[in-house]
Amino acid sequence: MSKFGELIDGNAPLLLVFFKEMEELKDEFFPTLRDVAAAIGDHGKVIKIEIDKNPKLADALRVKVMPTLMIYKMGEMVWRQSGEQDANTLIGLMNEYVD
Fold it and tell me: What is the DSSP string of 51-81?
């Protein structure tokens, strides 16, 4: 988990998306995440984390519902929501935390 600490410690907002391998999510929600990443550009990051490959991290963060989305900035969780969100909502949230 020390890598996780390094990952979330930056000044730019980081959107973490915890998911379980499901075809519907890939087909419907992942394109939304690509749109968010493209809109944010170098001002932030979007990272998908599969919970089956990272169970300790998912447990530590009490991730129960898929997908669970979190925004971190400077090591602190500043937003968390379970369930899919539309691209405009996520872009707006990320922009709130851009310096």
Answer: TTT-HHHHHHTT--SSSEEEEEETTEEEEEE
Pairing of strands 68-73, 14-19: antiparallel
Global pTM value = 0.91
Nearest to 18 by CA among 3, 33, 40, 2: 33
Question: Count of residues for the chain?
Answer: 99
* Residue-wise pLDDT tens digits, 11-33: 999 999 999 887 666 678 999 99
CATH class of 2-96: alpha beta
Per-residue pLDDT tens over the stretch 68-96 = 999 999 999 999 999 999 999 999 999 99
Structure tokens belonging to residue 23: 């075809």
> Which residue is it, tokens 């990320």?
94
- Nearest by Cα to 94 from 30, 16, 26: 16
